[in-house]
Design brief:
By secondary structure, the protein is an all-alpha fold. It is 54% helix and 0% strand. The protein has two domains: 63 residues, no CATH class; 79 residues, no CATH class. It has seven helices and no strands. The chain is globular, with a radius of gyration of 22 Å.
């Protein structure tokens, strides 16, 4: 709440309030924030309330830890399709590593050996075993894949 008040005060100090009163802006921000929190709490309660049905404990732990749940379909699959599938797809995948399905991608991402996906992505650009070949993925993409693995490599 303190941050909301400071933000409103800063906006007013820089003439960003125009015709709206400070109280109206404060009420609007607090209302929006509370609605978002209620929706998140309701969603978490529906998923994690084991009295209704068996809860997915891994998912509830992720939600309780206040982190963003990484989606295989929305976050991980597009990275793999863009940066890996041209070599690790089709009839003759490079190094015999096929990365076309969730199970195959999950297996490689969870492989902690030197041939595992994350190990190969984290190598120096001068290393000939860096994947993808010829360039390094952004640290954001690497971190996204690592966080997906730490969240249990969910097929979501």
């Amino acid at each position: 709440m303190k941050e909301v008040f400071i933000a409103i005060l800063a906006l007013c100090l820089f003439n960003a309030c125009s015709s709206d009163s400070v109280e109206e802006l404060k009420e609007e921000l607090v209302s929006d924030t509370c609605e978002d929190e209620v929706e998140e709490d309701l969603h978490e309660d529906l998923i994690c309330d084991s009295s209704n049905y068996e809860a997915d404990e891994d998912l509830c732990e992720v939600m309780d830890s206040d982190t963003n749940l990484i989606s295989f379909q929305a976050d991980i699959s597009p990275i793999i399709n863009t940066h890996c599938s041209s070599c690790h797809g089709g009839v003759t995948p490079s190094a015999g590593l096929l990365l076309e399905t969730y199970d195959l991608i999950r297996s490689s991402a969870n492989n902690t050996t030197s041939s595992g996906m994350i190990n190969r992505m984290e190598r120096d650009e001068s290393d000939p075993r860096l994947m993808p070949m010829g360039y390094k993925l952004s640290q954001n993409n690497i971190d996204l894949i690592k966080n997906w693995v730490s969240q249990g490599s969910l097929n979501n």
